[in-house]
Design brief:
With 349 residues, the chain is α/β, with parallel strands linked by helices. 43% of the residues lie in helices and 17% in strands. Bound molecules: nicotinamide-adenine-dinucleotide and thymidine-5'-diphosphate.
């Protein structure tokens, strides 16, 4: 019997990881610790929350005494740490929240794990989930390797980079059995509609304008969230201690091309004449410090652990659009209230 703590399990990627662990490992007790910020939504877990091996704990990773007490009480064997402030645009308007949760929160978890494991690290693991954004921006060619020097540009990526450094420092200094992965942009069901794909799906549906930053020529690598969850499962169980693994979809898109593909699918699904929603595209002022291109070299993960993306982009993208159209209540719930205030502040609509 193992006790696993998953932080941020009510969020986008975390909910897919919780689902996978709860279903695949009935002999694990899975604890989901989440503060339930605007991005945390327990509806994401309605299919697993009655399972006997699932437990929810509401709490803030920034609160050190709460975290220490929780670890002392539950004696977790493993931690899969996803809780974070995750949106670049919010980090530009409010960086402090990112420093508290992403940096201080991560160090609180490291301290709590170190305190209960007391140098007896047999069967223990602290897995920190990070992003490719820590590596900075690429030009037209090349890809991020695990050895690429860190060069974050946004407060979000700077805070994630800082937390990665602390995780490595706890491994190197105290021998804490850590592992880190850095993944590219995820897409799929349950992503909060402030991020590009769900935001634009929702806007196309409601005939609202599509704010394309700059010229729309920035490039992102997109991975289906379920494939990220599979990689996390593999790395948690088989990744080498002290190592870093890059995770990517080998699937680069210029924003504007991705948006046109999305419009093509949406117009078809909504029964609009092809190309109708192209008129919604509105070029707006570029994001400050906007990274031009991200691309991942995931060959280490492939060669060491045999991981490859299993979902083809065409299939995953279409399934994603279908999910948001079929889950209108989910979208309406998360786009009401405080989200509306944020959206108005951000886009002035
Ligand atoms: P998300 O914003 O959807 O979810 C974050 C979750 O963390 C939410 O449930 C939120 O309530 C919780 N949380 C926030 N602050 C907290 C706090 N102080 N205490 C406890 N819980 C708190 O984020 P996501 O997109 O699912 O990303 C999850 C992780 O994966 C993050 O660490 C992110 O940096 C990383 N990541 C994301 C992507 C991506 O494309 N979304 C890509 C690579 C890596
Ligand atoms: P986003 O989903 O915020 O992810 P990230 O910034 O972590 O890559 O944005 C993806 C890309 O889409 C990024 O280049 C910024 C761009 N973008 C827009 O052009 N308009 C928008 O309204 C948003 C949210 C993003």
């Amino acid at each position: 019997m193992k006790k696993i703590l998953i932080t941020g399990g009510a969020g986008f990627i975390g909910s897919h990881v919780v689902r996978l662990f709860v279903n695949k490992y009935p002999d694990y007790q899975v604890y989901n610790l989440d503060k339930l910020t605007y991005a945390g939504n327990l509806e994401n877990l309605s299919d697993v929350d009655k399972m006997p091996n699932y437990h929810f704990v509401k709490g803030d990773i920034v609160d050190a005494s709460f975290i220490n007490q929780l670890f002392e009480k539950e004696q977790f064997d493993g931690v899969v740490h996803l809780a974070a402030e995750s949106h670049v645009d919010r980090s530009i308007t409010n960086p402090m929240e990112f420093i508290f949760t992403n940096v201080v929160g991560t160090v609180n978890l490291l301290n709590a794990a170190k305190a209960i494991w007391k140098d007896n690290y047999e069967g223990k693991r602290f897995y920190h989930i990070s992003t490719d954004e820590v590596y900075g921006a690429l030009g037209e060619t090349g890809s991020f390797k695990e050895t690429t020097p860190y060069s974050p540009h946004s407060p979000y990526s700077a805070a994630k980079a800082s937390s990665d450094h602390f995780v490595r420092a706890y491994h190197d200094t105290y021998g804490l059995p850590t592992v880190i992965s850095n993944c590219s942009n995820n897409y799929g069901p349950n992503q909060f509609p402030e991020k590009l794909i769900p935001l634009f799906i929702n806007n196309i549906k409601h005939n609202k304008s599509l704010p394309v930053y700059g010229k729309g020529i920035n490039v992102r690598d997109w991975l289906y969230v379920v494939d990220h969850a599979r990689a996390i499962d593999l790395i948690f169980h088989q990744g080498r201690t002290g190592e870093t693994y890059n995770i990517g979809g080998n699937n680069e898109w210029r924003n504007i091309d991705l948006i046109k593909k999305l419009i093509e699918i949406m117009d078809r699904k909504l029964g609009r004449p092809a190309g109708t929603s192209l008129a919604l595209i509105t070029y707006v002022t570029d994001r400050a410090g906007h990274d031009l291109r991200y691309a991942i070299d995931a060959s280490k993960l492939r060669s060491e652990l045999g991981w490859e993306p299993s979902i083809k982009f065409d299939e995953g993208f279409e399934a994603t659009v279908e999910w948001y159209l079929a889950n209108e209540a989910w979208l309406n719930n998360v786009t009401s209230g405080s989200y509306q205030d944020y959206y108005k502040k951000m886009y002035g609509e």
